Amino acid sequence: MKFRGFVLFIILFLVGIMSASATTIDYHEGLKCDPYIVEADGRVSMQCKVGFQVKDGSAYYNSLRGSLTLNNVEFAGITASGDWHVESKDNKNFYLTTSKTKLDEGYHVVATIKFYKIDREKECSVIYEFSFSNETRKCMNYHGTYYGKDGKITDKKTYELECLKHVCEIVDGHYFNKEGKEVSHLDYQKSCEINICKILSDGTHYGKDGTVVTASEYRMQCEKPAPCEVRDGKYYDKEGKEVSHLDYQKACEKNICKILSDGTRYGKDGTVVSEEEYKKQCEKPICEIRDGKYYGKDGKEVSELDYQKTCETNICKILSDGTHYGKDGTVVTEAEYKKQCEKPVCEIRDGKYYDKDGKEVSELDYQKTCEKNICKILSDGTRYGKDGTVVSEEEYKKQCEKAPVCEVRDGKYYGKDGEEVDERTYRTTCEVHKCQIIGDIYFDDKGRIVSEDEFDAACNAPIDNPQTGATMSYAFVATLLLGVFGGLKYLKRQNKIYHL
Questions:
Q1: Whose CA is closest to 48, among 111, 121, 104, 3?
Q2: Tens digit of pLDDT for each residue in 120-131?
């Protein structure tokens, strides 16, 4: 599919420069965009950084309001950078704030916006307008940064003491009553605490309902443990009998989704349930397989593959989508997986040889144990025949070497095509014969087979016998020599040419 690239024509609204006293905020480059990306679903996206330049000193602003006019572009979202925060946003506007009380000189990147192109065939553009302001933050907890009543950044303790109304609270050793006034510890106890069967430092007695009583009434109400009471580290059941902590929990407490020390489990309605039922009612299934379903780290149902990737420790494992995990559980390439996890059986890896057991061996041993050696001679002289088994040198020649051409082997004659022939054929086809007659075949002075007349013309030049003075032809001399050494039986003269 062809489409035009995601080209954003970023247009600055108005002049793009804002002055604060002698300080200037320049946001001509308010959006700096990365190259477009074609995502897996085919949509074209682009990310742009939101920023501005502070010049000539510091600017006392802590908020930025942006407005966008979009042409063929969808606003996909904005993410704040650094200590900036997105306070509000919609599909065309956003409001950013920072905990800083001033903006120092330099270029500030405050957020990243993601856009999607709507029609991939059309051009697109964004017009943006920025405005800066300074929020007054008095007695405010702004994203963990505390501001005192003077609007300046302070610590938490100062903030709480200056700004919060403390009703029945103890703040840094200071006691506050129901009206929020600082009082003594004793007055705090009287005003704020529920004093059940308690005697304060000034001798005031409180009964079992928390009201002030006389000393005698106190003894009547409080000396005997009340039902389901914990007193001085001891536990009392509904009948006022002292019991163990466990029995107290079972008899007196409302146990909602709770497991007691003896393993007793209570469900969401406070009744005793099984372990399995407890998990269903009370536990979020984190990285768990429950009823054939898979749950990820956030407790959401996921596929088996995603469960394996997010929850399991995958050591030397290949998942169903082909993802390979190495020996330390990280994703690796297929080649790296083989190096880390697979035993190299009959393999050459990084120039090293491994046999059938995965042990490193020499190249020779690798050839012997792993390779199919057909008619092959190894470096140590071991010979393999045509079926890949070890054979003798003689057997190797028979099975593997090229047929013997013009050779006498084991008393047999082999011709030019390597086939076995008789001696006469061997001599006529393989030996060089000059001016010789073998049977009815004539060879001239160049060893070529010729007719009798051509033979006579080439070979019937007479030569003198230096001892007898007799004249013999070349053919006779050659024939005579052949007869002497070849075991010829007879010679006869015919037209000055001698035949075998």
A1: 111
A2: 888 999 999 999
DSSP string, 392-415: -HHHHHHHHSPP-SSEEETTEEE-
Question: What letter does residue 372 receive in the DSSP assignment?
Answer: -
Residue range(s) in the chain whose domain bears CATH number 2.60.40: 8-133
* Assigned CATH class of 8-133: mainly beta
Which residue bears the tokens 């095509």?
417
> Does residue 425 contact residue 415 with C-beta atoms inside 8 Å?
yes
Q: CB neighbours (10 Å) of residue 47? A: 16
SS3 231: strand
What is the spatial distance between Cα 160 and Cα 166, in angstroms, rounded to a whole number?
A: 8
Model-level pTM greater than 0.70?
no
CA dihedral 321, 327, 333, 337 (to 10 degrees): -90
Closest CA to 110 of 27, 36, 23: 27
Each residue's pLDDT tens digit, 235-251? 988 888 889 999 999 99
Query: What tokens does 88 get?
Result: 């509000």
First and final CA of the chain: distance in angstroms? 90
